[in-house]
């Protein structure tokens, strides 16, 4: 069972438009409404794969109630932490060529009591599993991974994720962390089992631009020296890297068309964790999930029928000199 933690969830509305003309009235050709937030998307992808998942998240107001309802409709168990502020609503405008314009609201400001309640809920859901190296859910399902994902809402200090990683490790759970900036750097001291930056976040973490795949490998290796046990780095259209103590692997996939990249990185992390969370086979699953997600509308998460592992290539012969399609600064 994969537990996800989303400190700043959202209600996401995606509109498909013929073109984004500033100052004009835009008429959408299609629309979707989905529960959002990086950890929420991981839970949605895990559930689409037929695996059990529990989503821990603060929820408030009518948007929060709707997020819980939409998750329940997808068979996802929700462990809500009630908060006074209303859950944020985000808007995405998707154009036919795959260009996506997003408007993300800041979200509510959490109080100290709400912050502690969120941490306590995670610990309660992990439980204690003495001697087995893993937590257990309420009905005894092993908590194999905890995915802590996304930005922190107002009111939570950058060290909040570090505290969560520490508490989860004390309970015997493995941690996958997908965040950026000061929150990522602060959490590294607690040695998360996997961190999942994209190229821009990786460049920001090491303080220098990345122009090649080799640059990204060096940056990932640097994050490992800071404390990350493994780094799963998304390089956009160029593929993904997995850098661990035992080896470095590069994965890529053939994608025929891009419809929306909303949640593609979250789908990749879900695929990685659902496949065990280590080694080239898990990387192949991550790449397949990400490639499938970009070919679906809005933030729809791929199901097993959407995956094409035959289009995925994973190799230990990393193309270090390959220029990144979108260099990261």
From TrEMBL:
Could you name the Gene Ontology cellular component terms for this entry? cytosol
Q: Where is the Carbohydrate kinase PfkB domain?
A: 18-301
Stated EC number for the protein is 2.7.1.56
Instruction: Tell me yes or no: is Transferase among this UniProt entry's keywords.
Output: yes
Record's Pfam families? PfkB
Gene Ontology biological process terms from the UniProt entry: carbohydrate catabolic process; small molecule metabolic process
Q: Which InterPro entries match?
A: 1-PFruKinase, PfkB_dom, Ribokinase-like, Tagatose/fructose_Pkinase
Show the GO MF annotations. Answer: 1-phosphofructokinase activity; ATP binding
Protein keywords: ATP-binding, Kinase, Nucleotide-binding, Transferase
Q: Which domain of life is it from?
A: Bacteria
Presence of the UniProt keyword Transferase in the record: yes
Q: Write down the SUPFAM superfamilies for this protein, in alphabetical order.
A: Ribokinase-like
The cross-references to PANTHER family, in alphabetical order and at most eight, read: 1-PHOSPHOFRUCTOKINASE, 1-PHOSPHOFRUCTOKINASE-RELATED
- Similarity section: Belongs to the carbohydrate kinase PfkB family.
* Stated name of the protein: 1-phosphofructokinase
Tell me the organism. Answer: Streptomyces paludis
User: Upper lineage ranks?
Assistant: Bacteria, Bacillati, Actinomycetota, Actinomycetes, Kitasatosporales
Gene name of this polypeptide: pfkB
């Amino acid at each position: 069972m994969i537990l996800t933690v989303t400190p700043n969830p959202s209600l996401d509305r995606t509109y498909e438009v013929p073109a984004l003309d500033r100052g004009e009235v835009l008429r959408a050709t299609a629309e979707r409404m989905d529960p959002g937030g990086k950890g929420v998307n991981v839970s949605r992808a895990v559930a689409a794969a037929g695996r059990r998942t529990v989503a821990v998240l603060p929820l408030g107001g009518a948007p929060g109630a709707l997020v819980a309802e939409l998750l329940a409709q997808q068979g996802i168990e929700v462990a809500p932490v009630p908060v006074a502020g209303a859950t944020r609503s985000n808007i995405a405008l998707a154009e036919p060529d795959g260009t996506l314009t997003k408007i993300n609201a800041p979200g509510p400001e959490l109080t100290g009591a709400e912050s502690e309640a969120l941490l306590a809920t995670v610990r309660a859901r992990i439980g204690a599993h003495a001697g087995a190296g893993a937590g257990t859910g309420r009905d005894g399902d092993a908590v194999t991974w905890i995915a802590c994902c996304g930005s922190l809402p107002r009111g939570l200090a950058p060290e909040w994720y570090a505290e969560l990683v520490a508490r989860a490790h004390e309970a015997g759970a493995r941690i996958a962390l997908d965040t950026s900036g000061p929150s990522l750097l602060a959490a590294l001291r607690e040695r998360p089992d996997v961190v999942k930056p994209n190229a821009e976040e990786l460049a920001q973490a090491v303080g220098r631009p990345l122009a090649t795949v080799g640059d990204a490998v060096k940056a990932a290796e640097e994050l490992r020296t800071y404390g990350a046990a493994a780094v799963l780095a998304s390089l956009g259209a160029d593929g993904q890297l997995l850098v661990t103590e035992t080896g470095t692997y590069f994965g890529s996939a053939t994608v025929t068309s891009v419809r929306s990249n909303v949640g593609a990185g979250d789908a990749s992390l879900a695929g990685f964790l659902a496949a065990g969370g280590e080694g080239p086979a898990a990387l192949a699953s991550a790449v397949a999930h990400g490639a499938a997600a970009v070919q679906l509308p809005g933030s729809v998460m791929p199901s097993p029928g959407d995956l094409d592992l035959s289009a995925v290539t994973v190799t230990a012969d990393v193309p270090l000199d390959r220029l990144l399609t979108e260099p990261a600064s």
